[in-house]
Amino acid sequence: MKTWIAAVMVAMISLCAHAADTPAPRVEPIAFKAGVDSVVIKQSIKGNQTAEYTFNARAGQVLTVDFKPSKTSAYFNINAKGADSALFNGSIMGNHFLGPLPADGEYTVQVYLMRNAARRAEVASYALSVSLAQGDAAGAKTKR
Predict the structure, then answer these.
(1) Closest CA to 96 of 76, 132, 66
(2) Which of 20, 28, 60, 142 lies 20 to 30 A from 121 at CA?
């Protein structure tokens, strides 16, 4: 019985230690300036670090995200606040997103390294271009 309790205690301590190794995401708000509907961000991430770029948008606005990483193991996701699943998953869909946003609210573009690269503490530099344009009523055309 004492061995079982000791094993559980060791497992709990190792889980806490592992959680402490994961750094908090770097969160940076994107503020689109009047008359300018795009920004380019040049940064890098290392290991388990993630970068999150947040912005507010309205339903029907057209979002374009282009991602140019220095490592093929770096990707980005797009998430809507409170949504059950990602709007876009870069590890499956690639380094480019273009589409109308489904709802008003806060969106996050999350940049990360795949687990294998993160475990090796690799560093990836990247350029992230984020554009937000007004869409027409059908969401088919964009106005810049």
Answers:
(1) 66
(2) 28
Residue with tokens 């008003």: 104
Q: What is the three-class DSSP state of 93? A: helix
The partner residues of 66 in beta bridges, in order of sequence, read 96, 129
- What is the C-alpha to C-alpha distance for residues 79 and 39, in angstroms, rounded to an integer? 18
Amino acid identity for residue 15 in this structure: L
Are residues 132 and 93 in contact, defined by beta-carbon separation less than 8 angstroms?
A: no
- What domains are defined for the chain? 24-143 (2.60.120.380)
Q: What is the pLDDT of residues 64-87, one digit of tens each?
A: 999 999 999 999 999 999 999 999
**Beta strands 26-29; 51-57: pairing state:** parallel
The torsion angles phi and psi of 8, rounded to 5 degrees, stand at: -65, -40
Q: What pLDDT shows up at residue 118?
A: 94
